[in-house]
Every structure is written in structure tokens, then in C-alpha cells.
């Protein structure tokens, strides 16, 4: 790995964070080499993880300097307390997953739901979280229907997470996704305190980053 290239990208990331007034998470599953994470840690607000192992590694690297946000379709009930000890945020992949495991940790961390916006820009379905019959996230329609049936369903949920892109070079796709989610979940958003915009965007369009400023 070329540390100079990595630091150059992190500088762009810093510009994006300031321009968009957002917090930046690095996804540990991309590369989980401890030395690389130590290089990245001072330049981000925290790490995104997808397992208890990754969460432990992230917390060991960050110490108390940043936050750890986990999302996974495969959460084990017997690991919930350990996850709460390592993570600050946990986005449940589905409403049934939240109903099964949420009560054990809802008072220990910030809990959220991963939503599937049903909007995709990926041609290869192997990498498409919004492909037909996808199990990644709760569809906007199911969220509405379940909430109508049980208004107390989202009590304890403080945020939403979505991830529907891969290797995108255009932030306009993120803008379209956010607009769709805001239109669909407008009644819920005032009750939320955070939203995780996912990833899958290349930081190579400096002109777009500067336009945000």
C-alpha cells in the first residue's frame, strides 16, 4: 500500500466532510489490516463494521476517539451484549432482526434500521443490494405496512441506514437516493437523530467535492 496515496485520499475526504457537514466512517471490511486502520483512524470520525470481530478491531484501533457503527444481516443473539460493548451504533438489517435482538441492547447503544430504497445504479446484480428478492435491508413499503400494524414497532429506533451503490463516480446518485428516502420516510425522520448514508462512492471527482463547498 502507498501511504502517500492513502493520505492524499484522506485529505479529499476531509474536504468532503467539511463541505457536506457530515461525519465520515471507514468500512473495515474493505481492508482490515491493523497498521492501515491506525493510519486512517485520525482522519475519520469512526469505523463501519459488519461483525463482532471487526467491531473489536475497530474499537481497539480507535480507543475512545471515535464511534463504531455496525450493520450485518447475520447478527447472532448470543453476541448482542458483546456487540454493545464494542459499538456505539447498530443498524439492524430487518424488522424481525430488530424485534428479536433489539430488547437486549436498545438501552446500551444507538439502534437503527437498514432500509432498502429500491433504487439501484449497479448493473452487476452480484453487487446490487437492491436487486429483486434482496435480503439486505427493509423495503420502504414493508416498513410502512408494519408500522401501520404496530405503531410501537420503531420505539427505540433512533436512525436509518441505507447502502445501495458500488464504485459510483457520481454523487448525483446519492442525491437521488436521499431524495427518495426523504419523500418516503418524511413522517419518520423528525423522530430520528441520525442517518447513515452508506458508501460505494469513489473520491476521485474533486470538482464535485469542491461544488459542495
Commentary on this structure:
The protein is of the alpha/beta class. It has 8 helices and 8 strands. The chain has helices spanning 3-20, 34-40, 52-62, 80-86, 95-105, 140-149, 172-185, 206-212, and strands at residues 25-27, 46-49, 67-72, 89-92, 110-116, 138-139, 157-161, 194-196. Strands 1, 2, 3, 4, 5, 6, 7 and 8 form an 8-stranded parallel β-sheet that branches. The chain is globular, with a radius of gyration of 17 Å. The two termini are 30 Å apart. The mean pLDDT is 91.
The global form is globular
Can you give the mean pLDDT?
91
Give the structural class: alpha/beta
State the oligomer: single chain
Beta content: 15-25%
Annotation, overall tally of beta strands = 8
Topology pattern, helix = H, strand = E: HEHEHEHEHEEHEHEH
Amino-to-carboxy terminus distance: 30 Å
- Put simply, the count of helices is 8
Helix fraction?
25-40%
Largest sheet: 8 strands, parallel
Low-confidence stretches: none
Rg over C-alpha atoms, rounded to the nearest angstrom = 17 Å
Amino acid at each position: 500500500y502507498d501511504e502517500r496515496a492513502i493520505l492524499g485520499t484522506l485529505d479529499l475526504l476531509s474536504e468532503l466532510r467539511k463541505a457536506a457537514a457530515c461525519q465520515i466512517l471507514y468500512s473495515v471490511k474493505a481492508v482490515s489490516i491493523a497498521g492501515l486502520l491506525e493510519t486512517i483512524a485520525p482522519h475519520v470520525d469512526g469505523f463501519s463494521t459488519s461483525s463482532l470481530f471487526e467491531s473489536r478491531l475497530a474499537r481497539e484501533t480507535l480507543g475512545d476517539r471515535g464511534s463504531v457503527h455496525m450493520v450485518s444481516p447475520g447478527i447472532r443473539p448470543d453476541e448482542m451484549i458483546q456487540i454493545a460493548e464494542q459499538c456505539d451504533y447498530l443498524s439492524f438489517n430487518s424488522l424481525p432482526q430488530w424485534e428479536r435482538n433489539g430488547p437486549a441492547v436498545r438501552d446500551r447503544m444507538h439502534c437503527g434500521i437498514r432500509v432498502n430504497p429500491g433504487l439501484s445504479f449497479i448493473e452487476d446484480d452480484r453487487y446490487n443490494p437492491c436487486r429483486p428478492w434482496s435480503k439486505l435491508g427493509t423495503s420502504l413499503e414493508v416498513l410502512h405496512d408494519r408500522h401501520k400494524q404496530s405503531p410501537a414497532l420503531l420505539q427505540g429506533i433512533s436512525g436509518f441506514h441505507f447502502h445501495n451503490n458500488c464504485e459510483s463516480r457520481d454523487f448525483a446518485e446519492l442525491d437521488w437516493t436521499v431524495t427518495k428516502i426523504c419523500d418516503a420516510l418524511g413522517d419518520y425522520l423528525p423522530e430520528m437523530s441520525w442517518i447513515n448514508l452508506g458508501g460505494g462512492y469513489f473520491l476521485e471527482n474533486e470538482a464535485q467535492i469542491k461544488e459542495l463547498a
